[in-house]
Specification:
The chain has six helices and seven strands; from the N terminus they run ααβαββαββαββα. By secondary structure, it is α+β, with helices and mostly antiparallel strands. The protein has two domains: 60 residues; 147 residues, Heat Shock Protein 90 (2-Layer Sandwich), CATH 3.30.565.10. The strands form two sheets. A five-stranded mixed beta sheet has the order 2-4-5-7-6. Strands 1-3 form a two-stranded antiparallel ribbon. The C terminus is likely disordered.
């Protein structure tokens, strides 16, 4: 489906490029600007289709779960983002108890990356402050949070921001296509958790998300239980011999 959608867009881009190369000198300034708009819009639409394809591939069955040290994961993310943090004079702190969870590390890294990136991007302070922590486990779930001192989010927009292609600000004011939080929501829910935000305009935001605290979920336990009858059958002859022996 993505190929069928992208093919006509590529034809449009190619046609614009040919027109620019063959007739660019004969076009007036307005015509050149129109061609640039057509080309940029087609490329943007192609990127949006790519985002939707990536989003559709994030399912529970597609996850590659493994035991993941969240603290180590965050240290790797902080190291990768160090140039951006320095350029924005941002300060990132890690607080609280950090568990090992059974998750897809690549997707979990993407969740934290998007939340940290948003905390830097949507921040009008000279020194953005970002705090990442983990609350004590409750009801079988770990709760992680990313808190910032940014521009905040109005109550009416707290649900909408997790939908695809939802932007609260003009493109010229803040970059992005409005897909980061949609990816976060899909990834967290595929892991069996949920994500939400607490925020007020001008006071910053705190994004929370949960992940199961049991490193060996129900499907793994069920797989182990299936092996028990075989183990019991191996011990059955021993039990029979013990019953036949006289008591001491």
């Amino acid at each position: 489906v993505s190929h069928d959608l992208r093919q006509p867009l590529q034809i449009i881009v190619n046609a614009v490029q040919l027109l620019e190369e063959e007739s660019g000198a004969r076009l007036d300034e307005s015509a050149g600007e129109y061609l640039a708009v057509i080309k940029s819009s087609a490329l943007r639409l192609s990127e949006m289709i790519g985002d939707l394809v990536k989003l559709s591939r994030i399912t529970t069955n597609a996850l590659h779960r493994e035991l993941t040290d969240v603290r180590q994961l965050l240290e790797e993310i902080r190291e990768a983002l160090e140039p951006i943090l320095e350029r924005r004079s941002a300060h990132l702190t890690l607080t609280g108890h950090w568990p090992t969870v059974r998750a897809d590390p690549a997707h979990l890294r993407l969740v934290f990356f998007h939340l940290i990136e948003n905390a830097i991007t949507f921040n009008d302070k000279p020194h953005p402050l970002i705090e990442i922590g983990c609350l004590p486990p409750a009801e079988g779930m770990h709760t992680f949070y990313v808190r910032d001192n940014g521009i905040g989010i109005a109550a009416k927009d707290r649900e909408r921001i997790f939908h695809v292609f939802q932007r609260l600000h003009p493109e010229g004011e803040f970059p992005g296509r409005g897909m980061g939080l949609a990816f976060c929501k899909r990834i967290v829910e595929a892991h069996g958790g949920r994500i939400w935000v607490e925020s007020e305009p001008g006071t910053g935001s705190t994004f929370y998300f949960t992940l199961p605290s049991d490193p060996f979920p129900q499907e793994d336990s069920a797989a182990l239980l299936k092996e028990e009858p075989e183990e019991r059958s191996l011990h059955a002859p021993v039990e029979g011999i013990r019953e036949a022996l006289p008591s001491c």
